[in-house]
Amino acid sequence: MYKKILVAYNGTAESRSALGEAVRLAPDASVEVHLAGVVHYPSAYLLAGEYVPEVALADEREHMEADLKEAHALLAGKGIQVTDHLVVGEPVDVICKLVTERWRILRVTKVSRGRP
Hints:
116 residues, Rossmann fold, 4 helices, 47% helix
């Protein structure tokens, strides 16, 4: 079956569903589950010439860290090996980079671009 699974996680219903799918696909501790939390740098504001305060980015990072911690605890509680990846950037670019740089074969489960 799968050796590594990447779940893009942001606390939404879709990412919680993906987490459940990862649990189903990782029946034992031999499977590694990687959680990718992406702090979306609001490039649209930068293109419009607006300043994005560091406080807003720090707040988003805090939320993502809390979401990842919750998901990590759920998986670890089921005996699954978990590695967290908290990255700042464009979600699609970050996820694709994780996939191409780290793995040849893996399953990427449901991805949502929204926040709860």
